[in-house]
From TrEMBL:
One of its GO terms (molecular function) is DNA-binding transcription factor activity. It holds the Pfam family MarR_2. It comes from the Bacteria. InterPro entries: HTH_MarR-typ, MarR/SlyA-like, WH-like_DNA-bd_sf, WH_DNA-bd_sf. Residues 17-146 form the HTH marR-type domain. This is MarR family transcriptional regulator. GO terms for biological process: response to stress.
């Protein structure tokens, strides 16, 4: 058995250079900060923007469907919906098929806000894409993991 202090520094370097999770997390944090800054004038974080965009559909999803789409657990999603609900950007209707369940949907105010924010999101993405060698390839590779 090795002692806890016996882990060689070379292992740290290996993790730094090889760990996909670390690289994706670092990239996600940097992207999040970039999009948070771009969406700040609308009073939205990138996470809130993503939730609202995921609700921009003809029929409201269940919380479970939305959580699956966003790769979030239901509890985290519910907590993230609360400020959007308080801000009157999201309504929560009772699901007629299951009275215990709620169906989140966008308000007219949220739809107007998304219409204003989408061009800024698009411009931020255009700037980001311009700095990447092959953004479509990156999206495809990330989709393989997601």
């Amino acid at each position: 058995m090795s002692k806890s202090g016996d882990l060689p520094f070379s292992t740290t370097i290996e993790v730094r250079d090889r760990c996909l999770c670390l690289r994706v997390q670092r990239a996600a944090r940097r992207l999040a900060r970039r999009f948070d800054e771009a969406l700040r004038p609308f009073g939205l974080t990138h996470g809130q923007f993503s939730i609202l965009m995921a609700l921009n559909r003809p029929a409201p999803p269940t919380i479970g469907q939305l959580a699956d789409f966003l790769a979030m657990d239901r509890t985290t999603l519910t907590a993230n919906l609360k400020p959007l609900h308080r801000r009157e950007l999201v309504t929560l209707a009772v699901d007629k098929a299951d009275k215990r369940s709620r169906l989140p949907s966008l308000t007219d105010e949220a739809r107007a806000l998304l219409a204003e924010a989408a061009p800024i999101w698009r411009a931020t993405h255009d700037d980001l894409d311009a700095g990447l060698t092959d953004p479509a390839e990156l999206r495809e590779r990330l989709a393989e993991i997601a």
